[in-house]
Amino acid sequence: MNITDVQVFVTCPGRNYVLVKIITDQPGLYGWGDATLNGRELAVASALRDHIAPLLIGRDAGRIEDTWQFLFRGTYWRGGPVLMTALAGIDLALWDIKGKQAGLPVYALLGGPTRAGALAYRHCDGRDAAEIADNIRAAQAAGYTVFRAQVDVPGTAHFADATWLDRTTYPQPFETTPYLRAMPRLFEALRRDLGDAPEILHDVHERLTPIQAARLAADLEPYRPFFLEDPVRPEQATSLHLVRQHSTTPLAMGELFHHRWDCLPLITQQLIDFIRVDIAHIGGISEARKIAAIAEAYHVQMAFHGPPDVAPITHAANVHVDMAIANFGVQESSVFPPQVAEVFTGIPTLAEGLLRVSAAPGLGIEVDEAALARYPYQPGEYLPTLRRADGSVQDW
Ligand code: GCO
Ligand code: MG
After folding, report:
1. What domains can you pick out in the chain, each with its CATH number?
2. What is the tens place of the pLDDT at every residue in 243-282?
3. Which atom of ligand 1 is nearest to the CA of 334?
4. 202, 225 Cβ separation under 8 angstroms
5. C-alpha 266 to ligand 2 mean position (Å)
6. Which of 159, 138, 142, 141 is nearest to 150 (CA)?
7. 307 C-beta closer than 6 A to ligand 1
8. pTM of the predicted model, to two decimals?
9. In this structure, is the dihedral angle defined by the CA atoms of residues 81, 83, 85 and 91, taken in order, positive or negative?
10. What is the pLDDT of residues 71-96, one digit of tens each?
């Protein structure tokens, strides 16, 4: 079963996605992968089209691990967001092919289901605590039990993730002092309003220094957050030692990591409780299951990144892995733009707070190429920049 073609599509059904289709010499046997890197889509598309696809023609599509090792180690240049996203696109498409060839869903190939579905969390951002509480109540009515709370910080501007889509707010101002005061107040208000039942987490988005992160983790502790996400920058991740010394607030990190070696110190030193790697940015399912196995040995749970800026193929891959591992923690869920449903079928479904994939062979996602062609790539979908009041750059 040899690879005859590797096709790359860049499409924008509301969000830009880079999709990979690997075609084999077996009639009708092909696989779909996702290689989307938000704001750097064309760099990945070029890496795939110009450099990686030509290496794959004629190779055995069944040799997933060998192809992974060949592209990661055998071609010398490895790591980084562009190459690891490109590798993920290939890896996902090969697992899709493997499942279709076997007539089995990928979770069955990975060892079979360990649970009924993947516990999902929902973004419930808002301008203030009252709006977030209303959003959480609405999500509870839809069956969710875990929620992410982001709030605008008075005196600085928008912190709630959704507001970044409003381009008029570029660049956004941010100051840590009002933020550090606002977050415990938010959690206090949410607990007062909603009680103990909802599991609530917060994404710091790498904005704090270690001592600030320690302060916040300690201040939030009485309100029992589900986890505090990305409290510090990924470049200084072992500074989480400092945060650990000051609180028992569970910590999560990993969406900016690219492979198991980025994760290793945090897992083996038990500096985090959840690892949040993005399957589309770490070279795919092959790497994800290795990270999960390492994490399992250290009581770290998996919480794969699941934002709307990666395609539904990655969301399906998330759930297939979630379904098959022992140390699954929680799965970030996203609401896609409505046009996405025209292009993709088989997107994971949500009921009673659990994400599920079907038992269809492979990853279970089909892509409508005619629909995809109606939504050409939209340039300039960049992330915003944060600046301090004095004009200096702040991590977004
Ligand atoms: C999350 C993330 C995202 C990222 C985005 C960057 O936890 O979902 O932090 O919102 O900002 O994926 O492209
Ligand atoms: Mg995040």
Report:
1. 3-104 (3.30.390.10), 109-362 (3.20.20.120)
2. 999 999 999 999 999 999 999 999 999 999 999 999 999 9
3. 8
4. yes
5. 17
6. 159
7. yes
8. 0.96
9. negative
10. 999 999 999 999 999 999 999 999 99
